[in-house]
Write a structure and sequence with these properties.
Layout: E1 3-10, E2 17-25, E3 29-39, E4 42-46, E5 49-51, E6 57-59, H1 66-82
Antiparallel strand pairs: 1-2, 2-3, 3-4, 5-6
Length: about 80
């Protein structure tokens, strides 16, 4: 699986949200709305999500295994830190 960052939109300000990111998967599927967030242990990648009828947030994209999540995180954070 090949991940390629297509767009990074940085968010200026004091909040924890640092950027929105769009990623292509094998140049045939576009994942929109990943977020780079500053957490207690540093930066992490948050998957796209939407608000449910119960006012809770639910992820709409889930990596199926740890290796895929780690590879996606590495590509996104690497691109974020380069720009």
């Amino acid at each position: 699986m090949i991940f390629k960052v297509i767009r990074i939109h940085r968010i200026d300000g004091e909040g924890n949200l640092k950027a929105f990111v769009d990623v292509a998967l094998d140049e045939c599927l576009l994942l929109k709305g990943l977020r780079v967030v500053e957490g207690r242990s540093g930066l992490f990648v948050s998957m796209p999500r939407e608000k449910g009828r119960d006012n809770r947030w639910y992820e709409t994209v889930h990596p199926m295994d740890k290796e895929t999540k780690d590879a996606l995180t590495e590509v996104v954070l690497g691109a974020y830190e380069q720009r």
